[in-house]
Amino acid sequence: MSDAKRAECLRGKGVTKIFGMGDKKTVAVDHVDFDFREGEIISIVGESGSGKTTLSKMLLGLISVSEGQIYFQGQPRDIKGGKKKREYWKNIQAIFQDPFSSYNMFNKIDSVLLDCINMRGGKHLPYEEKFKLMSEACSFVNLEFKELTNKYPFELSGGQMQRLMIARIFLLKPKILLADEPTSMIDACSRSTILDMLLKLRDEINMTVIFITHDIGLAYYISDQVYIMEHGKFVEHGAAEECIIHPKAAYTKRLINDVPKIYEEWDLSTV
Ligand SMILES: Nc1ncnc2c1ncn2[C@@H]1O[C@H](COP(=O)(O)OP(=O)(O)OP(=O)(O)O)[C@@H](O)[C@H]1O
Ligand SMILES: [Mg+2]
């Protein structure tokens, strides 16, 4: 689908994050512009310290924007106050680099999943209905709900935990999913399965997926649009084909040279 037909989802103008003051000042994100559309898969690629996580925290509304403006569905985003923030978080959800940091370790897994159902307004459903929804979400990510009930998140493996995060997304069905290196703890085989699950979710609910990664090969494999980030700035962006097959910026060329076999790396038939 062309950009003109896709509805506006998240847009940014001059978005900047400055940490600290004076000598200790760090400009982590430096006047970036972006335009993410509904149903698009966007990758933000850059080396360690380039500002990817800082930008994603601003997109999520977890930290303030120092300068510039974020627009959500065409309007300046207004998330002042807890109530507006909670409303906004129905639209945007995240999967983090470290799955261990994403759960309250003292909540059992069924309550993690029940919370999602409640958030979507399913609080008053009969338990059998909730059970059905939770089982369905687990089987979507190849987990068996019956084996998980009564367990705590720390009793799962890293890979299982990341799958549980995707099961949550399946229940929450947000408009935007932000995934910060989501597959880092998973072997190559489950990694491609999980990426396929996210792509399937995109197709099913027209979700916008924002991937944050070091891996330009992965970005090429999954994305419609790619933004290349260096020292807090976007040095290049465009369709994945254009950006990665015909890169203009020296930095993009260098990232590509670090990946010897960009075409073969994500050939699923070899997994
Ligand atoms: N809370 C903070 N206070 C001060 N500086 C910070 C803070 N968070 C991040 N930074 C700095 O901002 C810059 C960007 O960090 P960020 O975590 O966004 O990078 P990244 O691209 O996500 O890196 P990685 O790929 O390693 O996860 C770094 O120089 C970092 O030290
Ligand atoms: Mg990061």
Question: Biggest β-sheet: count, sense, barrel?
Answer: 6 strands, mixed
Strand content: 15-25%
**CATH class descriptor of the largest domain:** Alpha Beta
CATH superfamily of the largest domain, please?
P-loop containing nucleotide triphosphate hydrolases
Count of helix runs: 10
Rg (C-alpha, Å): 19 Å
In total, how many domains does the architecture comprise?
2
* Alpha-beta classification: alpha/beta
Mean pLDDT: 86
Indicate the percent of residues in helices: 25-40%
Name given to the CATH architecture of the largest domain? 3-Layer(aba) Sandwich
Strand order of the largest sheet: 6-7-8-3-9-10
Ligand identities: adenosine-5'-triphosphate, magnesium ion
CATH topology of the largest domain: Rossmann fold
Shape: globular
Low-confidence stretches: none
According to DSSP, the number of beta strands is 10
Order of helices and strands: EEEHEEHEHHHHEHEHEEHH
Termini Cα gap:
29 Å
What does this structure look like?
The structure is a single chain. By secondary structure, the protein is an alpha/beta fold. The protein has 2 domains: 8-91 and 175-270, 3-Layer(aba) Sandwich (Rossmann fold), CATH 3.40.50; 103-173, no CATH class. Helices cover 37% and strands 24% of the residues. It is built from 10 helices and 10 strands. It has helices at 52-60, 82-89, 109-119, 127-140, 145-148, 158-172, 188-205, 216-222, 240-245, 250-257, and strands at 8-19, 26-37, 41-46, 67-72, 75-76, 92-95, 176-180, 208-213, 225-230, 233-239. The protein has a 6-stranded mixed β-sheet with strand order 6-7-8-3-9-10, sandwiched between helices. The protein has a 4-stranded antiparallel β-sheet with strand order 2-1-4-5, with helices on one face. Strand 7 (176-180), helix 7 (188-205) and strand 8 form a beta-alpha-beta unit. Helix 3 runs parallel beside helix 6 and helix 4 packs across helix 6 (158-172). The longest helix has 18 residues, at 188-205. The two termini are 29 Å apart. The relative contact order is 0.16. The mean pLDDT is 86. Magnesium ion (MG) is lined by residues 52-53, 180.
